Amino acid sequence: MKDIVILKIWSHKLPILAAVATMIGVFLWPSIPLGGVTKWLNFFYYYSPQNILYLFVAILSGLYAGVYVYNKKVVACCSIESRKVATTGSIVGILLGACPACIPVLAFFLPLSVTIVLSRISLLFLILSIGIMLFAIYRMNGFRKV
User: What SS3 state is found at 4?
Assistant: First the structure.
C-alpha cells in the first residue's frame, strides 16, 4: 500500500514541503480578501457543506503539488502533462467554489443576475473542482504503484 505515489511523496522532504505549503496557501487564501484569518475561520466554521469540500480542494491541491514535485525532482520518470488541468481545477474550486469574498469581487465585473447564479451553484463548482483535481492526480500517476 505504501508503494502508491501519493503516499510515497511523504517520504521525501521537497514534495512534503510543496504539498504542505500548497495546502496551507489554498486553505488560507480566503483570509486575504476577508481581512483576517479569524474572519475566515469563523466563516469556514459556519458555512456548510462547502467548508468540508473546500478542505478537500485544499488537500487535493497540496497532493497534486507534492506529486508534481515528486515526479519532476525526485523520480524524473513520468511525463507531466496535466499541469494546466490541475491548475484550472484549483482556481475554479477556490474562486468560484468557496471563497466568500470572490463572488462579491466578481459582482463588480459581472451583472447581478450572473453573480447570484454563481453564488447559488458554488457547491457544483466545488464538486467539479474536486473531480478535476482527482483526474489530474490520476493523470500524473498519483494512484499507481511505484
Answer: strand
Report the number of distinct structural domains present in the chain.
Answer: 1
125/121 Cα distance (integer angstroms): 7
Single-letter residue type at 46:
Y
| CA–centroid distance for 89 within its chain | 7
Amino acid code (one letter) for 63: L
* Helix (H) / strand (E) containing 114: helix 112-120
**Size of the chain in residues:** 146
Q: Is residue 36 part of a domain?
A: yes
pTM of the model: 0.78
Q: Which of 14, 101, 94, 103 is nearest to 59 (CA)?
A: 94
Residue 146: inside a domain: no
Q: What is the mean pLDDT of each run of 10 residues along the chain (146 residues)?
A: 81 92 88 81 76 85 88 70 59 58 67 77 80 84 80
List, in order, residues 6 or more apart from 103 with CB less than 8 Å away: 96, 115, 118, 119, 122
